[in-house]
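Box S2. Input/output pair 1.
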Amino acid sequence: MVITTQVFESYLKCPLKCWLLFTSEPGTGNSYSDWKQKSNESYRDLGVEQLLNSAKNDEPTASHIASVNIKTAKWKYASYVNTESDSFKSNIHGIERIPPEGRGRSTQFIPYRYIFTNKLSKDDKLLVAYDAFVLSEALNREVNTGKVIHGEPITAVKVNTAALKGTIRKLTSKITSLLSNESHPDLILNRHCSECAYQTRCRQKAFEADELTLLGGMSAKERHKLNSSGIFTITQLSYTFRPRRHPKRLQDKQEKHHHSLKALAIRENKIHLVGSPELNIGGTPVYLDVEGLPDEDFYYLIGLRIIIDDSVIQHSLWADTLDDEKKIWHDFVDIVNNLAMPILISYGSYETAFLKAMCNRYGEAPKESSSAQAIAASLNILSVIYSRVYFPVPSNGLKDIARYCGFKWSEKQASGIHSIVWRKTWETSHISEMKEMLIQYNADDCTALHIVTTTIINLQRSQQAACNAKLDNIVDISKLKRQHPYGFKRNNFVIPELNDINNAAYWDYQRERVYIKSNNTLKDIVQTHKQKHPSIPINRTINIDPKRTCLACGSNKVYANSPTKNRIIVDLKITSYSIKRWASKYVYKQYMCANCNKTFTATNDLLSKSKYGDNLKAFALYQCIELRLPIITVQKTLNRLFGLDLSECKVNRFKDEAGIKYKPTYDSLIEILCKGNLIHADESKISLKVGSGFVWVLTSMEEVVYIYTATREGDYIQSLLQDYKGVLVSDFYAAYESINCPQQKCLIHLIRDINDDLFKHPYDDGLKMLAQNFTNLVKPIIETVDRYGLKKYHLNKHLSRVNAFFDDLSSMLLATETGVKLRVRLEKNRSVLFTFLQYDGIPWNNNNAEHAVKAFAMLRHIINGLTTEKSLEDYLILLSISETCKYKGIDFLDFLRSGDTHINAFLIKQMRKRSTDKAHQTNRPDLIDVTVTP
């Protein structure tokens, strides 16, 4: 296997091209590639001839040498030198031989390479470095310098080939590995494709295989990440798109481009809109397209398509030579100045760079002129389309989108790179047909831009008029709902009658309305099921004493104005080991005051009492919150076990009443947390009936609070903790960083991330070394915590080791992107990773909050996205109290039954009661009055 210059050069452009060239795969041809090769050969021949002619009369030259011999070579310059070693071969354009300047010095050889372009690329320098490398291998001596001759006027650039030798060795090693493989490398489309002889072949293969590489703008890193997830085609990628809401804090930031949404648009062959395309043209639209020679920084054709009312005016400003460029620029400025409120519209960055370059070259127009204002406010349509309008075409190129909109170019193969060939052909031959082709191509680009702009405006109007439902080829992403492939769902029928037929097929409808008409057994079952519960026997009757004074004015002139009334309250009697239904009947009379004419009962509290007692409500809430049972399950359990007739709405009302009752308790917990010395923070998402939101968890060692917000933005939490002076323990979410207080980041989160990186990159030695050093730092600290607890007196001694670790971190050699990212992350969070070493009682992880999040996650699973914001807030109030009771060692059911709304007050009562019980058990009455503080 011999690597030639042609194979090496093709690898620099594309590994697949290198493989195809080496295996002699026939190309499909490319006019630009052919023109470029001929131009380079012509420039090379002319340059070599000048090199040989530059030799003095007494300096011999040579041409077409098969090999270089150090001892026998007497020439000054040699051309077309075929140099070959064991595995490498190069046809060097020219070599300069420099004889030794004194004893002990060796002859120097400098390879020459001729490139016709005015601008050199990195690949051009690598080519002369490859020539020097092959020459060095053949001569068995170092070749430290090479020269690249390029452009008009001719310019010589000296290249330090010795510095590039390591790069050449790596590249040749990769080429050898590539060519020794029988299978071809992955097909990757890139910028070189437009000038490659295999362009048609590769694009056809990519379309047949539905390759991801067809999507313009997708980087190799993004493609590799998708491949590692098993996604190899555009169709596969299209199924990964999920519509997401744009956060308010990012409203001013442009939406990023979603390749998955582009893939979805291609699969469905529909235009997909993200938000609303903001395109307002309030003046005279001027569609601008410019043709130029990038290698020469020369703009030779300016196309203007002006729309005035319903008429179209096309201008084509042509420059024969570089000297005419100034003239067509001034013509352009004059045309724009004569328009009323001109709006310059272009596509892509080429025209933007043109306007900037012309202003720098020939001076800016007066600020008051129409042209200066139009140039300053020029509109790039691509910036409107990007990330907002997804056409069902692989790229956002003007030609792809305009063809989708129905436009056709006069020349099928027309492209920017082919226009360079046409212009160069015209410059050498002055064939009028070439000039006409360029002008027509430029005019076609202006027309295409006009059509695309009109399409965007129509899309915007149709969206504002809410007509998307009538347009089959337009999809508004904001109206898309996330599709779940599995699970129960309601069917939406286009024909209303089909919905009626579907409703008649439900199980309960057929069982209760259809089957019972022909099945007597089912009829008896249904009738039995519909029977109401028997009346509840009364366990206790309470006669309320008559009232002698008015509750409103205090007058004793009251008299009974109604017969005896009664109210039955159903409750539960809860003992240490049993629960029993208990119905109490209250017997009372209604009275009227002769003084103020107010009507009242023996006790007004009786009128406000619910049909159900406090113990029953407490037990229902206990099952719902503490035991995480759905409300419908709680309702069925109470009805079945205690013979009640509760509805699901009634049980839900218990929760609503409790939310109102315990709201002050909830607020007091928030106040205690904000005044404390430690807060653990975390957050989690929740789905609601309409939309979704986030629940934030704030905990200390004894209090827990759950807070709902509509978004994950940290505005509410930041305002809540703006005066907090304690230590905040959290994960690495950026919303916590702006809170002005000492912070401790969870080391467990960091350790898990490091471990994931180690699994993904098992051969990254630098990453392993960094991870091991971090482990050696943290492990002794954790051992100290296990031995002495979280006391800064014992933890302070580790601060010097922490500082030494970060001092060594900056000088550590890390060769991979993953290792560098980890180092940057550690250095960025240096001040918040080991805060716990400087405080008493501050944990090094966020497990306290994560534990509280688990309780919410269990409740969220029960809610299952079927709740409103108001109902969720009631849930969170009760869950906050339930978890706080657990953290304080209080039984949640006992607290609900007590009627207290202050947890610490209830805790004091409980501890006093325990002290009293203990005193009685030990026959020590003197211990009964002991003061207990929680």
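Box S3. Input/output pair 2.
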Amino acid sequence: MSHPESSSAAQDPSAPAESGVEAPERPWTTSVDEAARALGVDPQIGLDEEDAARRRERFGPNLLREHERRGALAILRDQFRSLIVLLLAVAAALAFLYGESLEGFAIVGVLGLNAVIGFLTELRAVTSMEALRELSDVESTVRRAGRQVRISARELVPGDTVLLEGGDVVTADLRLVEASRLQANESTLTGESAPVEKGVEPAPPDAELAERPSMMFKGTSVTRGAGAGLVVATGMDTELGRISALVEEAGEERTPLEDRLDRLGRRLVWLTLGIAALLVGVGLASDKELLVIVETAIALAVAAIPEGLPIVATLALARGMWRMARRNALIERLAAVETLGACDVILTDKTGTLTENRMSVARLLLPGRTFEVRSSDADRPAFVSDGRPVDPGSEPGLRRALEVALLCSNASLPDEDDPAGAAVGDPMETALLRLGAAAGLRREELLEAQPEAREEAFDPDIKMMATVHRAGGPPGRGGAAADGGAAADGGAAADGGREADADFRVAVKGATEAILHAANRVAEGDGARPLDGEARDGWEERSHELADEGLRVLALAEKEVGDPGAPPYEDLVFLGLVAFLDPPREDVAGAIEACADAGVRVVMVTGDQAGTARTVARAVGLDAGDGGVVTGRDLERALGEGEAARSALLRASVFARTSPAQKLDIIALHQDAGSVVAMIGDGVNDAPSLQKADIGVAMGRRGTQVAREAADMILEDDRFPTIVAAIEQGRAIFGNIRKFVLYLLSCNVSEILVVALATAVTAPLPLRPLQILFLNLVTDVFPALALGIGDADPSVMEHPPRPAREPILTRGHWEGVAVYGLLITAAVLTGFWAALEPLGLGVTRAVSVSFSILAFAQIAHVLNMAEPGSHVLVNEVTRNPWVWGAVVLCAGLVVAALRVPGLSDALGLVDPGPSGWRLIAALAPAPLVLGRLWHAARRRLFDPGRSLEAS
């Protein structure tokens, strides 16, 4: 690909040395030649590695200056910025004011411990997020020493020649030197959403940013066409860098889950403040000491608010995201984590997701001759016709078609002396290049004989691509120059399709129906004959037959013209069809079956032919349904026919020949029906669909940069089963969050009820303020954390997804909070009464008994968080080693609170004695046993198949 203006750029050997390299101050005002000379580079060759290394040392990496990240001190400081900390600080101040220094220091100690735990867990979450961001790196295609290579965008330097195609994200500021139907989305800089036409012509010096067509800017994206540009600015010197230096870092994205947790927390704050105020009033009426009343009220308020909840939620999300990353699912936005658990429809493309994206040419159908391509080695295909091997060099029609296939391409193969090198470009184009190499043709050699003068980039609307070349007598057949370029009568049909003074050869490839529509002749020998309606219908039928075999089909055409600017898609000579084999992935069928078991529908949406889509769907176990394959035309018609037709579309599992706009219609169709939709895509045209879907999923290897930027999740291995694993992890994360919220609230309700009921009957307080704070530290952190980072229930993918708008706690969960809270409260108050009255242990020992029963009951209560109906001894909670670690740790802390001097004195606890321990042993397990019995009774009473979550 080249532009006439750029063909002689920077050829002067007296070009400035690297030490004097400076990008033009206003590169959009300069010509291509001037920009290249200023940068000391030939755009057609590019920099060599040594020169690039020197420039990188001088200009630095192509990176924007990172905004100041939230450091450890900031995280630690934030632990003391909350209403809870304020309440504790007031309690400590009152303790010191009333001469209770021990309690004051103890409260300060609790404050410190809470801060340390919050700091450590939040720091780990932040570190996990930063590590996830480092897993993805953007690459660019550049010319280095005459070769196309892929390098990290951070390695770009001024003077590099960057190649651009539709779907690329621009990674530096570029002065365009080549452009073919090039458009860019510059909304990130200008706010204008409409694509901007680009070219190589200079602009006036005073042109605004949006009025510089010869420039491409870092952070924008290529929406159509192809081109090449010289890097004129990198890093903070780019327009994006200048803007970045002027604005503050945007706030972190808040997810629906975080908003729900915040709303829950605010409601609990006001609820517990109201309860605390009520207790103060009751306590004053009962002539209790003001300090005890105020401290108790504040401690209850703190105990009732699960302050560990946002921290545990953050850690659960971060750990889940890290697990997904280890399974090759990189989460870009936190919202996708919880949304995954509610996903019930996956819209997926075909190529590379359901198939291996390992394209190889299986067959060539030319006029009058069919060639099969056979090989045990994909890099060394052999040509077979009528069951016999053929020499491509002896088949002019075959060479003619292969030349067009190689010329009309943007791909490249590794050098012949570098067999381990990777091909660069579209898989279909690289398959054609490998086939050409097997026939003794290489694109580089063809381009030397027929230099490229112009390119018409692939247009998804017309489904064709073209390149224009100077005719130079290509090997294999006579060109325009070879035969004089003239015919006796000047007729196109008479002279094989050549026009007088035909100095340029147009190579075209694209969809069969598009090429046949643009062609009026068909190849015959070295010439052409008219293509009539019957022949056109015959070729379309052959194309459909190939598609029905599961093959992807590409049509080839050419013509010769005298003007390189002539319309490329008129009066074409049809050359034939190329059929590609892309076998289905072996692991897809099992993943689709797993989705069906999990209540998740998989729908194929492809631009390929209906026959190909049907064959691949059948191979991977995707049922096309009663309506069969729905084409784009069928979709448009059905959308305007009412609810019955729309309902039929909702049941369809295979859509073919769909446009980007129609993909949006399919997503909206399912979303309007109440579904949560995940969309898998890879191209620039998929970006709107990825943004519209509830979860946009992009391919990490073959996906365009625009698609990856638009997505919520990136499949780094391009495998469909990866999204199934991510959905499982998303369900597990939400389930874990639900478990520890239920656990925390039920524990806190029991603390409130214990103190509130004792205060209401003017009995001695069963718990002192510091004891409540200590229990709050023990039970709100360690068991909750263990639940938050546990593995998924093995049966999580055997149930349908939860409704998208379902709250964290349903009515059934709130019933559980109340029942569990009452069970624990009853055990504590029963033990407190028994210690005071029948056993006569005194207030101090009785308080120690009630404290111990509450502590051990809450610790054991973590086992009540197993899924309803699960085995009592073997379930997802008992299999969680973190839970047992938390149980042992918390039990040890409780025993220490009773028996370690200093700590027991601060908390006002003593050893309960033999009778007290027997009472504790009898009552502390009661809430666990009764809780499991309540599960079983509730299930039998309402619905044997009904779970707590479904209530």
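Caption for Box S3: The chain has 31 helices and 26 strands. The domain at 4-65+137-211+235-244 is CATH 2.70.150.10 (Calcium-transporting ATPase, cytoplasmic transduction domain A).
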